[in-house]
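step 4 of 6: structure.
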Amino acid sequence: MSQSAPLPLVESLLDAPLPGSGIAWLDAARRENREAFASGGLPDTRVEAWKYTALRALGQRSFAHGDSQAHTRIVDASTLTLPGIDGPKLVFVNGVFRADLSALDSLPAGLTLQPLSQALHGDAEPLRFALSWPAVVGHVREAGDAFAQINAASAGDGVVLRVAANTKVAVPVQLVFVGASAENVLAWHARNVIELGDDAELTLVEQHIANGEQGHLATLVSDIDLREGARLHHIILQNADIGANLIRRSSLHLQARAHARLHVLELGGALVRHDLRAELLGDGAQLDTRGVFMPHGRQHIDTQLAIRHQALNTTSSSNWRGVANDRARGVFRGAIVVAPGADGSDASLSNKNLLLSPSAEIDTKPELEIYADEVKAAHGATVGQLDERSLFYLRSRGIPQAEARALLTAAFCRAVLDDLPNETLREHLSALLIAHLPT
Amino acid sequence: MAFHSNESLKFITMLKIENLHARVEGREILKGLSLTVNAGEVHAIMGPNGAGKSTLGNVLSGREGYEVTAGTVTYNGIDLLALEPEERAAAGVFLAFQYPVEIPGVNNTYFLRAAFNAQRKGRGEKELDSMQFLKLVREKLKVMQISDELLHRAVNEGFSGGEKKRNEIFQMAVLEPQLAILDETDSGLDIDALKQVAQGVNALRSPARAFLMITHYQRLLDYVVPDFVHVLADGRIVESGDKSLALKLEEHGYVGIGEGASA
């Protein structure tokens, strides 16, 4: 974190003008975050959370800001649809909202869905708490928040989604972030604020896709609040361009009896980082996370899952699988804290990994800290190769070696999709996983 | 292959093993095993633990880690040992595993169709689509008296010992091998499960198909009556006879068997 010679990355990100909002508190927060980023710089591998993800190479690169053509870039509409998903949709291209590609007509009653840029034209006050971060009084800043800071400073758009109390949204809502080829290699940002009222229900599909070869740097920060008894099923499909750098943070806050389920597929990208944080704040809150990361080539995919049980009888279960091939690297950190007072909580975490090549690497680190009583907790992580007995069994039945390996690998990753209720979508995602396997 | 009548099949040599020596982890297990199996015949290979019975099955099906140091295995006129496991399967060799492997996440029907079509592809035959294949599978289920619930489960996952063995026989029925090697298929089965497995094997007996039944006990042979019984001891066939040899073994055990045959 040197002060003397700013890295080209830091310099180029600071070069972007702040999006002016005309809202005094927001402009002030953006300025503060920009300053924090300027003085803090990038985290290096001495910071525990960045131990396995070095930013040295990225730090030497410069990214242009603002895609003046984002409004008119042609995007193949078929890439914006998913089988089994047909509902409201918000589409961003290089961080810019695209009304023409979105579907916001006839939103169900109780659902608010709009781009942040529009939401700020109306009553911005409800967004104040989320968007003031980290300037909120008393908020402790962590080392390594650099990307959240530059996101808070520079994101001019993103998603604002609210579900009113007691509203069960029957159709899934789709958020699509497209990285599109541009004249320059770009940095773009998106800031999402998602709130489910008491006993509200929503299925949310978040997609990260590529439109051509690009290699941009994107940062996305999502705050997801679930009020008492709210239920969210959140599916994240990250299928960005193979050259893309994608740094995301999703922070979930669960009040009493709230239930969040996540299915996460990390397939694309060059350097991918996802900080997935969940705080179980109310009694009986429940979190289930499932995920698979499949880096190949020279991809680097890092998932940092941090779960805090802070109330009585809270439950979390996490099941993640990693498959690394070629010279790729996967990183998984699953940190669970059961805080004092979170008695009767139940936390389980499993991360199983497959290395398909001798040059591939997966670093996995489950961490469990328990400060409460009568807690049930289980965690485990493995890294291994395909089971030779299973391979021989398949081959002895006539299935050629390469096909047998693919079949076993697919079965290994598909396990994370088992409890995804939308069968059409499950089949589609399963096919995507198989398409990503080495042939 | 053109067969003129069922009778003529009886005398076609399907498998010829000559002076087979094989090592596992540097230890010699098979020490000059010779055996000839003709189409339509059922051969039982019996012997004490550690004699090399399972090694024989594994060597014939091409499992890694089994090193053949001498001898030949000719199957329908070709060098079986030169083939990959999947090529042996496509050529009609089937091993029913002593310990069938559980494969979570792979559906039984999907697995079987992949195997069935891979074999057909290997032989240059047309693959079956899922509807055609399902029809075939349902017919086989009927013959094997197996409930179709088995089709929807993952391969062997959570199966009881008996269900696993029945699944092996069911796979055999679908894949229709020419040479079926049953490695201790009877072990761990109660009498009802044993009868069911035996009934399945008997239903598959045909003049074009040969069986090699590896077993420790005579029990299975009450239900699947072999044409020949061989005693495998210390890596070689030390005595051969008809089914009465199995009864003799049951009475007297393996002690003393084949001593006269040792060279």
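step 5 of 6: annotate
 - The radius of gyration of chain A is 21 Å.
 - Chain A has a mean pLDDT of 93.
step 6 of 6: archive
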